[in-house]
């Protein structure tokens, strides 16, 4: 019995791949604390403390001057170890063999003869697969560097445990500067006072360390909460009448909103806000549920000192750096490296990407975090 046309011709058309809109993934860690090349995995740095005598003493004309006070603990030393972060993909012998055979077919036919569709697809698909997985490995490494930096900035410490390797680092942020509650109330409430809260942080840091806090990093939700304060209503002059309903400036004052409130706070305090909502994504093997995990808590504000003040205090380390040391697969150069391995049984191909890096923050006490919304 002859086969019908419907069975000979498949009524299918490929419309391409539909990609979901991904959440923010922009990294800022290396913008704040860039790479610093070091020649070894273990590094040492010195730091000097302030003078014991802030003022010189008077003396009588014929009297002997006092000896300057000497403190044997005038300085200190810090140490850091650079950690190797790496990941690889394995391609079986059959995958590589089919790819090589397809390349041989293409080269045998020559450039003037069109290769069969299956051959062309196999070559391009394998190349695309390699490039895609190279990019994914690099993204995971970038995520790890961001996680290291922003975990330290959030908590003043790093705690790592993957079930095989575990370590914890405390960079020494004082407890009174960690996750403090704003004195004027949470910024999600109408009675909050963001300007006074920020200026209190500035006054404390200047009185304690002699530095000016000029930068703040927070989520969009935190920045949007600035306009919740009813103090902005008093500023506009639109005070409630007796027995009247609440005044909502968003609906009354043209141009008012979160950005306008942010501009008012920045002008009043001298602190510039940077929005930060980046996440990394995880999904269990074989599972369908994707989890977005923030690098920095959504309810927290990180205050950083001005670069000018930091440059006067520290050496080339400044407030902090992402140290990176040489690796043999990178021709003994610092930074990212790649490798391939083909000598294995059964024969296959391993491609990997890595970096030897770890952040160091010698001046963590010059930072301040505040939890401003629930």
Write up this protein.
This protein is an alpha+beta fold. It has a single domain, classed as phage-related protein like fold (Alpha-Beta Complex), CATH 3.90.1690. The chain is 30% helix and 23% strand. The chain has 10 helices and 15 strands. The strands form 5 sheets. Strands 1, 4, 12, 13 and 14 form a 5-stranded mixed beta sheet that branches. The protein has a 4-stranded mixed beta sheet with strand order 8-7-11-15, sandwiched between helices. A two-stranded antiparallel sheet has the order 2-3. The protein is flat.
Computed structural class: alpha+beta
CATH architecture: Alpha-Beta Complex
Unreliable segments of 5+ consecutive residues:
115-120
CATH class: Alpha Beta
Helix content: 25-40%
Mean pLDDT: 81
Q: How widely separated are the two ends?
A: 73 Å
């Amino acid at each position: 019995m002859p086969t019908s046309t419907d069975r000979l011709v498949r009524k299918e058309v490929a419309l391409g791949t539909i990609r979901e809109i991904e959440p923010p993934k922009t990294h800022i860690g290396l913008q704040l604390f860039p790479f610093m090349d070091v020649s070894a995995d273990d590094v040492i740095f010195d730091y000097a403390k302030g003078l014991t005598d802030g003022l010189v003493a008077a003396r009588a004309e014929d009297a002997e001057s006092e000896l300057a006070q000497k403190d044997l603990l005038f300085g200190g030393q810090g140490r850091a170890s650079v950690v190797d972060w790496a990941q690889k993909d394995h391609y079986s012998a059959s995958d590589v063999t089919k790819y090589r055979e397809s390349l041989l077919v293409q080269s045998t036919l020559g450039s003037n003869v069109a290769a069969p569709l299956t051959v062309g697809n196999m070559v391009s698909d394998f190349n695309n697969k390699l490039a895609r997985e190279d990019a994914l490995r690099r993204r995971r490494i970038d995520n790890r560097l961001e996680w290291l930096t922003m975990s330290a900035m959030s908590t003043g410490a790093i705690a790592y445990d993957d079930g095989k390797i575990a370590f914890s680092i405390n960079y020494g942020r004082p407890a009174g500067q960690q996750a403090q509650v704003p004195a004027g109330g949470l910024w999600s409430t109408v009675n909050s006072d963001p300007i006074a809260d920020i200026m209190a942080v500035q006054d404390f840091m200047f009185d304690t360390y002699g530095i000016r806090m000029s930068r703040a990093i927070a989520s969009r939700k935190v920045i949007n909460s600035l306009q919740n304060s009813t103090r902005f209503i008093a500023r506009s002059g639109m005070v409630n009448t007796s027995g009247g309903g609440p005044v909502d400036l968003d609906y009354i004052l043209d141009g008012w909103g979160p950005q306008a409130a942010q501009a008012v706070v920045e002008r009043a305090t001298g602190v510039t806000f940077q929005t930060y909502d980046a996440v990394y994504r995880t999904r269990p093997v074989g599972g369908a549920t994707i989890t977005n995990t923030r690098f920095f808590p959504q309810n927290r504000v990180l205050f950083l000192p001005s670069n000018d003040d930091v440059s006067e205090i520290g050496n080339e380390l400044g407030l902090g750096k992402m140290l990176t040391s040489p690796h043999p697969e990178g021709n003994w150069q610092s930074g990212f490296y790649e490798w391939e391995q083909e000598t294995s049984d059964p024969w296959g191909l391993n491609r990997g990407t890595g970096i030897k890096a770890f952040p160091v923050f010698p001046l963590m006490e010059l930072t301040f975090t505040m939890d401003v919304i629930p």
